[in-house]
Amino acid sequence: MTNGTEGNSKGQLQHDEPKRETPLPWGKLSVLLAVRLAEPINFTLVTPFIYEMVGGFDAVHDPKDISFYAGLLLTMYSVCKAATAMYWGTLSDRIGRRPVILLGLLGNLATSVLFGVSKSFKWALVVRSLNGLFTGNSAVIKSVVAEISDDTNRSRMMALLPLMWNLGSMLGGAIGGLSVDPVNKYPALFGNSKVFREYPYLLPCLIGSTTTVFGLVVGFFQLEETHFDRSTEYNRAMPNNENTPLLSEEASGSDSNNDETEKSSKWDILTPTVVRVLVTNTIMVLAISMHVQLYPIFVATSTEVGGLGMSSQSIGYTMAISGLAVIYLQLAFYPWLERKLGALSCYRHGLWLLALFSVAFPFLSVIAARMQKTPNLYLGFILKSSAVFSSNYFLFWLLLVVLLLIRTVGDILAFTSISMLVANIAPRKSDLGFMNGLQQQTMAIAHMIGPLISGYLWSWSIKHSFPYPLNSHFVWILGGISLGISWYMTRSIPDSVNVFASGSKSSSRKEPDNEAT
Questions:
Q1: Where the protein is mainly located, per its record (predicted)?
Q2: Bridge partners, 77 (sequence order)
Q3: In which domain, by residue range, is 204 found?
Q4: Of the four listed, 269, 361, 383, 454, which is most buried by Cβ atoms within 10 Å?
């Protein structure tokens, strides 16, 4: 009796001891990060110049309609992404992650270059739509990360994916803002170039495509297959290393489970908790897509109608500002906070920060308008018209930087956490591709609707002289309300979503016993 009691106590003590974190498989992870970086760069590099680009098309006759046509471009991208996102995830469950990822990179490479030679709105619309068709790597890469991680290092690895998105967005915005129209911006280098004079938007697309080429080359030679049905035959010829993918160890014992999984419907995984997580994620992405589409239009619009009146070059600077703190926040701050609070709580805090940004950001137009009216030192690289070196100038840029940092922290908390939650709620590991594909599809639908709403409502609000809150603030306020609704829905999500599908926790944080029931 005594020995049995002592044995149980010793076993319980060992069970309660926190697991040591598994070292990150940097070899495999570096390849994934190189592949992941390509998509956000090519997606965001058009943001600084899309207002000018669309305004130059023959289809646009009224400057106040530019936001609508720009929103339509972004919407068609999302429509096509929504139509194929779940398909790519499911396809990766069938033929493997590696071929799907490489095919997506090829499609993005071709469509990015073709978009740079757009001379008409129809051409740009078709190419942007094709780009959306090949944008399915995000869901597949999330599945790979879930397959090569375990319960001790999953939060750190998942945090790296939004890091790549934020870095890519920063680089894409900077590339687009600084390299567009090189003939006029850099006449000493490109003044005699007939190609860039004819296609002023080609250079940023070419520069952005180099990252896709790099990801494609690295992926072709170094990317290993991780899907347990495909990894054995592919990786048999690959050299072994100490960080073997998590699922490859279980492949030999999971054949019977795979047969059972194939017989069951993929849609059986849509439990109430899964639906709640996907719905709150979709509403959050709806608001963020309104931000993404509206931001370059709002900051480029004249202060006379409620914008900030900034140039495309300055828009690139502002997009780069928020990326300065991304590395620390993503690599150090988020994993620490997630271990303290859990992924669900981090997600809720991120929603609050994004809602604060959405409501507060449009008030910068008041300060920008005052800057335009003050006759003082001219700083043309900041605004299209005269800016001033005064207290208004310092206040404007101080608030701009603070608000952009708030948005960056909110993005990191919300998007990293929701990626972990979606991975955690998949009841079967074999459904990770389907689950992430389903998430990407619902997100793509939100990306499809958001730009249409924000583009139409922005045009409507600036065409009419409505008072606050129906003026230029209206779309931003609507985004804040959407984020509040998303936060409210998280109250019905149980804390058990902090636990991975296999039953292991998403962090080393100890859960109370009553939360596990």
A1: membrane
A2: none
A3: 30-225+268-502
A4: 454
Q: Is the peptide bond before 469 cis (omega within 30 degrees of 0)?
A: yes
Residue 319 maps to a domain:
yes
**Tokens for 109?**
């490479």
Q: Give me 355's structure tokens.
A: 């809602």
CA gap 440, 424 in Å, rounded:
16
End-to-end alpha carbon distance in the chain? 30
Instruction: Give the total residue count for the chain.
Output: 517
Q: For residue range 426-479, list pLDDT tens digits in order.
A: 766 666 677 777 887 788 788 778 877 887 888 788 777 777 777 888 999 999
Tens of pLDDT, residues 74-95: 778 877 877 787 788 888 888 8
Helix axes 474-489, 343-360, angle to 10 degrees: 160
| Number of domains comprising the chain | 1
More confident call, 1 vs 358: 358
Q: What's the average model confidence in pLDDT over 148-167?
A: 77
Contact between 127 and 118 under an 8 Å Cβ cutoff? The reply is yes
Strand partners, 310: 383
